[in-house]
Structure formats: structure tokens, C-alpha cells
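Work Package 3 (structural annotation) set out to generate three-dimensional models for the target panel prioritized at the project kickoff. During this period the team completed the workflow that converts sequence records into C-alpha cells, so that structures can be stored uniformly alongside our sequence database. As a representative example, we reproduce one entry of 336 residues exactly as it appears in the project archive.
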Amino acid sequence: MRRNIFIIILLLIFISCNRDNKNITQKQKSDKTKISELESINNKIKNNPDDPKLYNLRSRYYLQKGKIDSSYKDINKALQLDSTNSNFYISLSDIYLLMGKAQKCKDALLKAYKLEPNNNDGLLKLAKLYLIIKEYSKSIEFANKAIKANDLCYEAYFIKGYTYLENADTANAIINFQNSVNINQEYYDAYIQLANIFFNKRDDLAINYYKNALNVKPEAIEPRYNLGMIYQRKNEFEKAINTYNNIIKINPEYKYAYYNIGYINLVYFNKYDKAIEYFTKAINIDPDYIDAYYNIGYSYELLDNKTKAREFYYKILKKDENNANAIKGLNRLDNK
């Protein structure tokens, strides 16, 4: 299975909390509250200028605000005051990761590991980093270390699962993703990975996992869309259409939901006018949606409206002059 881009981006930019910055990772607050929080940290530093944990705290704050230079300056100050605190190196690794400096990120994390081998946050970050750079055996090694340090570390099981998935070992991937949700029944990402595995196997277990994902994130599009696809390929067309319509209620700009409803009406219901209506809605969202143009043309062709069919096939060729389907469509019309 190809990498799930959404998960890889999460792994790349994920900045988790450590023991010195729990307040920074609470729910997003108003700008006014954030300013007050920074002022509070500044006042503490003013009163305790030699406390390295306060500089780490402010570094984490700046990092979440996207102020990389300020964050980097503060973490270096923290390390000048105390070079033996593993959490400071973990904070430094987060900065390097966002700067795109993978080697320096790894060096900082290995320094943290040397200082504190059982620091679960550092172990997890090493496991994630090794996954990103595709050193899979190292990724599993540090995920296992994180589990040994904390057997309820559901993220470590997730990393192992994804590492096995990258190596086409779906059996072990399933075991580890399942371990993740057994520990944390609100772990959306693991439900999605499990669902996608069974989706690709054409196994109806995917339905349950997508529904579990939706219980965690009711507004999520991916699990709902894939549920629609499952119903569609099972010929449960009314369920599929209802699912796509629910997507449209959540996101009226989701072109694929319109397209799929159009496709069902075209291919399975032979309701060509209805199909045209939905393909047109998809095009209104994406004027370059070639497949939708083609299916409008084909719908008109089935309605024996050769003029309109030809019009849409030519629209495709204006966008893609070598489009094989449009050329075949025009040839069909010429031969009728």
C-alpha cells in the first residue's frame, strides 16, 4: 500500500508535549489569552533568569506560534544553562524537524536518548523519525523501547503498524493498529488505517472500522466517502447515495460525492438526465474535472443527443487534446 499522505504529514510536523510544557499543548486559546500566557512566561524568566526550564517553556510556546528563530534561541539558552536535560534536546529536535534538518533532528534525539533512555517522548520521536526516513528496523526498535517504557503507549503500536504496512506485512500491521485502538478507543488514525487495509482486501470489516472512525470524528470526509464506495461496489446504491449526500451536507464543495451520485445514475439507474445534473455540479466545483465532462458527453450520447455529446467531447479536447476517451466518443458519434 502506498503511503497515506495525511498520516505522513502528521508524522512530519507532529510536535508532542514533554514533561516541561504541558500547558502549551492545551486546546487553542484566544489570541488575548495567548499573549497573557507569553507575558506570564516572560515575567517568570525575569524573576528567575537562570531557570532553564522556563526558556524551554518559552521555546515550545514560540514553536507553536511558528516563530522558529525565537524558539531556537530560547532552547539554546536552556541548553547553555543545563546540557543534561533530555527534554531540552527533544525540544531542539522538534525545531530541527520543522527546519527540515533530519540529521540534526536525529542527533538531538539520540543525545536525549543517551541522557535518558526511558524518556517515552524521545523514544516515540525517534521511532517516528526513523519511519519518515525509511529506516524501518530502527523505527520498530524504538517503538518497542517506547512500549517497554510504557505498555499503554498506543502511538508506538501505531508506528509499528505503519512500519509493517510500509513493508507489505498487513498481518502484523493489523495486530499493531488493533493494539492502538484497544488502548485508545478514540484513536482515529488507527481506525482509518485498519479500515483502509480491509477496504483494499474488499473485506466488510472495513465498514465497522470506518464507522468507529466516524464515532470519533463525525464530520470527517475520508471514512464517510470510503463507506459510500463500499456500498457502491456492493450494489447497495441507495445506501451509497445517502452516504454521499451526507458528505455534501458536511462539505458542499466535495466534487467526488456529486460525481459518484452521477455515476450511479448513469451506469446503474440509466437516469441520464439525473446523471448530467450531478456531473454538472461536480464541474461547477472543478471546471477541469475531465471525467465529469466525459460522463456528461456520454450521458447525452445515450440520450441520443449527438450535438450536446459532441459539444462536451470537444470541451475535453480543448483541455486535453489527446484525451483517448473523448476521441473514442467522437469516433462513435461519427460512426452512428
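Residues 313 and 327 are 7 Å apart (CA to CA).
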